[in-house]
Amino acid sequence: MLLWIVLSAVVCACHAGAVCPTGCECSEAALTVKCVSKDLQDIPSGIPGYTRNLFITGNYISRIGPESFKGLVNVTTLSLSNNRISQIESHTFAGLRSLRSLDLSGNQLVVIHPEAFSVPSRTLRDLNLSRSLYNHTSVKDLAVSLRWSVLSSLQGLDLSGNGLIYLPDHIFSHLGSLRRLQLANNSLVAIHNGTFSALDRLEELDLSLNAFRTFRQEALRELDGLPWVRLHLGLNPYTCTCGIEPFAAWLNESQARVADAERLSCAFPAALRNTSILGVTEVPLGCHRAGEGPDLALQTSYVFLGIVLGFVGLMFLFVLYLNRKGIKKRIYDMRDACREVWEGYHYRYEIDSDPRLSHVSSSADV
């Protein structure tokens, strides 16, 4: 007991001597430090060692590196949102041995180094990168960093609001413990094989507010590979033409897994706008069914071609009929001309083949 009292006194003395950095607000009782909208250009030095919750937001910090958070071994929650950060170096958070939640939302990340998110003991559980990627090339750096940072304990990843138009193959394949994946409010148009490979523990996947017009067979197989996941697929511009039928059938079978299944509706064409996707199979889309012969459009093309050719044939026969006398005369003239030519060749042949007449031919030639 005496030893505990002495240690407590030492800790309190250390804490009492801690000075709050300029531009920050420190609360030892709440173990929290806030440096909010103070026009800071760097991570302030002298942050108290007792800090568990650190909020440095709304400033003008362009880069962070390994020297930024030295000595902050007790920090569990770190928010760096809306700081205009453009570069994160490798091992930036290596000194944060207890870090569980990292918020980098609302930044302008251009360069993300490999192992940028590495944390000792792999304690990181939640990573928020919403509205943080500056351009489409940043997602390639992110994919490399998610692989090399060894985030095997990460459970929540937020990539919403980044304008993503594609996801690199196997971008999440090294996040085996991931349970929540937020991809809402992007511009994704398709899901390919391997997009969600290795996410065996995933429980929630948000794909709402993207640019999906439908989910094709490849995407449906990928979603079927996540049988325990709660899906969010709303507010996409679904186009209710023939291509949406497989998705509509899948949705009817899997609506228990889709949180907003009843709210999914057609955006195009205008005649079907706001029609529920669940009921779109009952709407006449003019689609041909499997086993019913060639595609309807192809059938229509063949019929039209046959009509055109038939009309041309009839016109040809009609022209022949109108000119039958002239055609008959031309045929007779051609026959007589051919006969005269043939008789001339025959006569010449008889002269050439009879020696008695050869001198007649020679005299005629002279």
Summarize the structure.
The chain has 366 residues and is an alpha/beta fold. It has seven helices and 15 strands.
Properties at a glance:
31% helix, single chain, elongated, alpha/beta, 12% strand, 15 strands, 366 residues, 7 helices, three-stranded parallel beta sheet, Leucine-rich repeat, LRR (right-handed beta-alpha superhelix)
Just give the CATH class of the domain at 22-154: Alpha Beta
DSSP helical segment count: 7
- How far apart, in Å, are the first and last alpha carbons? 151 Å
Shape: elongated
Give a quick account of the main beta sheet: strands, pairing sense, barrel closure: 10 strands, mixed
CATH architecture of the domain at 22-154: Alpha-Beta Horseshoe
In terms of structural class, how would the helical and strand content be classed?
A: alpha/beta
- What is the arithmetic mean of pLDDT? 87
Order of helices and strands: HEEEEEEEEEHEEEHEEHEHHH
Spatial strand sequence of the major β-sheet? 1-2-3-5-7-9-10-11-12-13
* Share of helix, binned: 25-40%
Number of strands: 15
Please report which band the strand proportion falls in: under 5%, 5-15%, 15-25%, 25-35%, 35-45% or over 45%. Answer: 5-15%
CATH domain topology of the domain at 22-154: Leucine-rich repeat, LRR (right-handed beta-alpha superhelix)
Low-confidence stretches: 1-16, 290-294
Rg (CA only): 41 Å
Let me know the CATH homologous superfamily of the domain at 22-154. Answer: Ribonuclease Inhibitor
